[in-house]
Structures are given as C-alpha cells and as structure tokens.
What does this fold into?
Amino acid sequence: MSTVGIDNTLRDKSRELVQRHYQELEDNARGKRKVVYLFTTGLIVELFRAFDFSVVYPEINAIHSSRQHRSVQLISDSELLGYAPNICSYVKCDLGLLAGPSKGQAKFGKIPPPDLIVVNQCGCSTYIKWGHALREKFHCPVKVIDIPFIHDDCPTGFDHEYVRRQIEDLIPVCEEISGVRFDPDRLKEILELTSDTIDLWMKMQELGKLKPSPFDAFFEGVSYMAPLTMWRGTVEARDFYKLADNIIRDRIKSNYTPYGRENFRLLFEGSPPWPSFSEFRGMFKAWSAVGVASTYLYVSVAPGDLEFSPEKPLDYLASLATQSYYNWNLQKRWNHIETLIKDYEVDAIIIHSVRSCRPSSVGQLDMRNYFARDKGIPSLFLDSDVADPRFFSSAQVLNRIDTFFEALSQRKKINERIL
Ligand code: SF4
It folds into this structure.
C-alpha cells in the first residue's frame, strides 16, 4: 500500500498497460497494422478494435507529455509552427510532438502516423480543427462523427439514430483501410468486455459514498483511468478494474482512507493540472481532504443508463458516443452535481478551471456562484491549465487552498458546536 494515497499495485499495473500500449505502437511503426487516431470524449474505440487497428489517442499523448514535464517544450514548438498561444494546450502538445522537431518521438515511445483519423466530435469543437491540422501533416482520410449535444436529460431518438448511422457508414471505410471484413460477432465480444469494464468502473466510484471513503475519486480515480480509455474493449481493461475492485474493497475492512484520516469530503469538478499533479495532490493531502467524487471520471463514459446492450452493437456504440459529461447541458451537469453532493455527503466543491479548454470550463464560475450562494455549499474556484504549467502558480494555488480549508475548518467547528 502506498503512503501517498495511490495503491502501488494498481499504479504499477496501470503503468505497465500504458507502456505496453506505447510499445505496441512502436512495434507497429513498420506498419504491420493500420493506425487510427481517435479522441477520448464520446469514444467508440471498440469499432476499430474489431478491424484490428492500432489506436493512437492524441489527448492521452498530451497528458503523458505533460506528466513527464515535456509540455512546455512541445507547446513552444507548436507555437513556432504558428499555433496561437490561447488555443487548447493538448492540441499544442500533440502538434508540437507530431509536427515539430520531435517528429513523433516522445519519451514514452514513437507515435506512428495515422492511416485514418476519426473525429468523434462530442462536446468539443476543437477536435475538428485538430483533426484537420493532423490531416495537413499526414495527408490521410479524416472522418467526422457529428454527435449532437444533449439538450434535455438524454439524447432524443433522432439524435441516437443520427449517430448510429454515422457509425454504420464508417464500417466500409474501416474495411477498406484495414483489409479486415466486418464481423458483428467479434464486435459484440469486444463490447461485452466494455460493458463489464464500465460496470466495474462505475461500481468503484460508488465506493466513495462510504465514510470514510476507501479511495480518492479524484487523485486516485484519474490515476486509474488509463485502462478505461487506452484499453477499453479488452480483457486487460476488465481485469484491471476487477483488481481495483478487490483492492479497494479490501481497504474497507480496515477502515482505510487515503490520507490516514478524512477531515473533508470533496467533490472535484474539472480536469487535473497534469504537469503539477503530485504537487496539487499534496496540497489536499496536507488537509486530509479526500475527493469522494469527481466529474472528470465521466469524460469518456458518463453515468446514466446506456439504453442498449452489446447485443445491438451499433446502438450500444451510439449510446456510448453520446454519453459524455462534456456533451451534457449545464443544467444536467448541475443537477448531477447536486445529487452527488447529497449521495456522497460532500463538504465542499473544488472547481479546477482550465484556461485553454472551453468545454470543461464553460459555466464554471456560474456553477461556483450557484452552489456557494444559492445552495450554501463551500466552493473553491481555481484556475490553471491541463498541460501548460506556466499557468500553475504554486504559491497562489497553495495560498487559496490553505485559506479555503482554514475557513472550512472554522465552519465545521461552529456546525459541530451547534449540533
Ligand atoms: S478544448 Fe478541452 S475538451 Fe477539447 S481537446 Fe482541448 S482539453 Fe480536450
């Protein structure tokens, strides 16, 4: 068991899967398998697994570059190529890596060029521009899946059908590029694994309701997320979450909580500042403040009934594609947060706003005002960036966090006295 709140076995297993992913990409640099680039929001990776594509996830490459402290160099490289300072820093990390002097060679492996780019445009319009910038570099086909925004509580029947047909239209494209015939049974098998994986992933999050919470849904949750995206639809992903379930359930028996005690129960909204991840975590650990719930965990698959099962593979894929948190309207996000506050007995909300990401940061100041002023839930608003550490001012962030928890401690004491 780790002393910093992240289980060593799970961390090592997750790292091993990440390394295997990049090793397989590198082994494939000679082009044995065709390569597709995919985005993680509204992910439908299973379709491409059924055609034996190697999959590159540009956003995940940006995350790993950020965590390995390479992002400033890559962002500068992309700015020298003409990309503006204020666009998404994931985009700049990725284009800096692929189109800059690095020529696709990252510390974590060599990224092969794409044979196909699929822009599953779900909540983020930057994806379109990103896909087109990649096409300019690699001159390969770009296919867009236009995923309608969820205006009500769930996608309409028309929206579902619209997405399903676009997925269906991709089948002959995949057949032609990969040279593999479409086999619906193979796709069903892959989706069965996905369905089991998602069940385990969602159940793991439910454990945050316990008091004390046996795991940190933000700092641990995001650390265990790689298999959910990079390996979804495989035995490896499913087995990872089986292992996570066993390890975290074991903790319950000993009343384990990540920082030794649980002083505050937090809900985290927004993405982590990846280059400063450990430092940021330390700032909360110092107050024994545990993330019991996190909206970031819903980026590639959001809670809610997936109306279809793998028995209807294209329908199931279409519902996976539409169910992302970034594709939810603001009212739906706020309603869900309100439910989490109640169900997880949350003391405060931490909102991490990302300067270069509109889909995640839109409405977050209004959200803070709504929960703090109208609902009386203490809420801390912090802003920095997902990939650019120049926007993370350690002293300022620490000062704001410490001041917030001092006030929260006082408030807790007063409430305890009243009770
Ligand atoms: S703008 Fe936000 S959602 Fe879109 S690619 Fe960048 S970080 Fe991801």
Observations:
- The pocket of iron/sulfur cluster is lined by residues 59, 88, 90, 124, 126, 326, 357-360, 386 (CB under 6 Å).
- Residues 9-418 form one domain.
- The two ends are 37 Å apart (CA to CA).
- The longest helix spans residues 394-418.
